Amino acid sequence: MDSVPLPSLLYDHAAGDSWLSSENCPVVTDALGDVDLSESQELNYMATRSRLYCRLAPQEVWLTLFKISSSVRTKKRSGSYDSDDEDLIPLEPLDLVWAKCRGYPWYPALIINPKMPKTGYFHNGVPIPVPPDGVLDLQKRFEEPVYLVLFFDTKRTWQWLPRDKLDPLGVDSGLDKSKLLDNKKPAVKKAVKKAYEKAIAHRCRVTGEPNPLSGESSSED
Known about the structure:
Helix content is 38%, strand content 13%. It is α+β, with helices and mostly antiparallel strands. It has 2 domains: 6-85, no CATH class; 96-220, SH3 type barrels (Roll). Pfam families: PWWP.
């Protein structure tokens, strides 16, 4: 695969501007210039998540990216890098994702830590729902690693899903658009769009950033 300059893929979709550029840290830009597309997609996700949830300065994120990229290259040279995992970006609790259940469209959801306190948890002041014991017990049915997700549907449905049924939400605008347009049924498409707006609103409450979608629902309903 041809090399793609990393800065061209580092885009802050929440703020709508390219905040990570060669002007911020040209030395690191030169060092990461040969990162291939799959690595860049992962690093883009890591950078966006760092800014949204840790609120790091661009220079600090660049240093983190440099360490990640160096680690990836070391693994590739040693032969310990699994090519089957290249397109599977690491996910963590409290990440927003597109989740796919059999018979249903890709739908916005939030990854929940099954080991979270029973008394509840606040993410930057935003309450995170506690999974019921019955939902937690269902994990025993799976032999493969699975993630616990809470959908942004009306019923707030819980589900356990493997990694290949999850895609990051709010990181790649092209991916988000394709998921939003994936279903041809108007009612389903509207429900997915509503859930997407709820997911973005949740992220904005967590980060304190303005909602880029505010006003869209009212103008189209």
